[in-house]
Amino acid sequence: MAQRFRGYLPVVIDVETAGFNADTDALLEIAAVILDMDEEGMLIPEQAISRNVEPFEGANLEKAALEFTGIDPYSPLRGAIAEKDALEAIFKPIRKAVKASGCKRAILVGHNASFDLGFVNAAVERCNIKRNPFHPFSSFDTATLAGLAFGQTVLARACDVAGIDFDNKEAHSAQYDTEKTAELFSLIVNRWKELGGWDMVLRTQEP
Questions:
Q1: Residues 85-112: what's their mean pLDDT?
Q2: What is the set of active-site residues?
């Protein structure tokens, strides 16, 4: 894994939020899927973690965003926890996986990844977390990769073309979207390997 992604461990992240501004709008859900590699060098989704998040003090809650996601931020049924606790619950197994894989850091994989990374970085700063496992600005964007591989940039449509089951009723849940994004990213990377792309690159680097 460390050799395949230049020392970075891909970790799929999805967030559900109360708006588009990472500095002012609440982070409401965060989910991660840690990827592993089998003996044949194929990516496989390995470990999934998700947490519902309490809005931080003074957070903005856009009505349109809440209507879109269907999330009631203050419902006791959510079992939401403080933002810092949620981040640490996500980061702890990621740090462990980074070390186990021989990588130096995690790199975020997301569908429109800059959005997710922006909210993660803003939450890390708010919570004064010193050990953010993710690269601060680099990421893998499955919207771009799916546009290249399948001619689709919307997650549901890309999954449909790729042959991945996608239930629109489950969409816009961080856990569900993360799992589907992990399947999509793994499929694209594995397909490239099957076509000889990754092995071909390795052969050209051999002395």
A1: 97
A2: 172
